[in-house]
Amino acid sequence: MTVAAALGVVSAYAAANWIANHVSPVPGGRVGYVLAVPVLAGIALPAWVLARRDARVLGLSRRDALALPGAVAAGAVVLGLLARGQPGAEPARLAGLALHMIPPSLAETLVFLGVLFDALRPRVGGVGAAAVASVAFGLYHFTFYPPWNTWSVALRLMLVWLAVSGVFVLTGSVWAAAAFNTLMAVTGFVVNRVTRLDGELVAIAALLAVGALAVSAAVRVACPAARRAS
After folding, report:
1. What are the distances in angstroms from CA 85 to CA 101, 180, 196?
2. By the 8 A CB rule, do 215 and 44 touch?
3. What is the DSSP-derived secondary structure letter of residue 200?
4. Per-domain residue ranges of the chain
5. Please, which pLDDT band fits residue 55 given cuts at 50, 70 and 90?
6. 3-class secondary-structure state, position 194
7. Alpha-carbon gap, residue 37 to 75, rounded angstroms
8. What average pLDDT does range 73-84 have in this prediction?
9. Residue 55 and residue 48: Cα distance in Å, rounded?
10. What's the rounded Cα separation, in Å, for the pair 117 and 104?
């Protein structure tokens, strides 16, 4: 994949998020937003790009199955350390936030690691690719609402993305990195005391999470290159 194509995917995702948050809210509230931005622009588009190049990236291999528990455990340790004693760190709320975070976290992983990092790595090496992807990830948060669109938070998120990139490099698994990223997102909501999602139904979040995972699988099956590689 060319760097230009990868930047096109990143730009499309960031533009969709900017429009939804600052120009024209998506009809349907939270459900409409998740379907239009994380699922369509952040999962379906990069998943199609990735499946056409290498269908195995979106598959669930033995390597992914082995890497997932470790990534979840690492994320849970960080969450436990940073969220301990914070208001809103009750287990039920953390579980609900995790369900809410699955679609956007998977989208971020596919866009900034599956697409951007992977396009940059052959040209600037793993460290350079992680650095560029982390800066892009931090800047992308200026397409959000407060407190995410501030320099102090964006700089912290760049460091977080270096850690997520490390999980991706160590495991070679998009799914392990997405799981770790999901728990980092939950940590961010608790530490920054963001309550924006507290009024949303957890059952709807669960359905959207399942739908997001199903879309990535459906794209892999539907892509002709993916079918030939299977």
Report:
1. 21, 21, 20
2. yes
3. S
4. 3-229
5. low
6. coil
7. 25
8. 95
9. 9
10. 18
- Pseudo-torsion of CA 40, 226, 60, 170, nearest 10°? -90
Displacement of CA 132 from its chain's centroid (Å): 16
Sign of the C-alpha dihedral computed for residues 215, 11, 136 and 51 taken in this order: positive
Q: Which range is least confidently modeled, 23-27, 34-38, 61-65, 224-228?
A: 224-228
Cα distance between residue 196 and residue 199, in whole Å: 7
For CA atoms 164, 67, 184, 79, the dihedral sign is negative
Question: Are the C-beta atoms of 35 and 144 separated by less than 8 Å?
Answer: no
Q: Cis (ω within 30 of 0) for the bond into 104? A: no
Q: Nearest to residue 21, comparing CAs of 9, 36, 11, 6?
A: 36
- Helices marked H in the chain: 3-18, 29-34, 45-53, 62-83, 91-109, 118-140, 151-171, 174-191, 202-222, 224-229
Distance CA 107, CA 49 (A): 13
- Return phi, psi of residue 107, to 5°: -60, -45
Cβ proximity of 229 and 50 under 8 Å: no
User: Residues 116-122: what's their mean pLDDT?
Assistant: 95
User: Cβ contacts of residue 190 below 8 Å, gap of 6+?
Assistant: 79, 82, 83, 86, 88, 89, 94, 97
Residue with tokens 């340790």: 77
Q: How confident is the model at residue 96 (pLDDT cuts 50, 70, 90)?
A: very high
Per DSSP, the three-state class of 146 is coil
Distance (Å, whole) CA 37 – CA 16 = 6
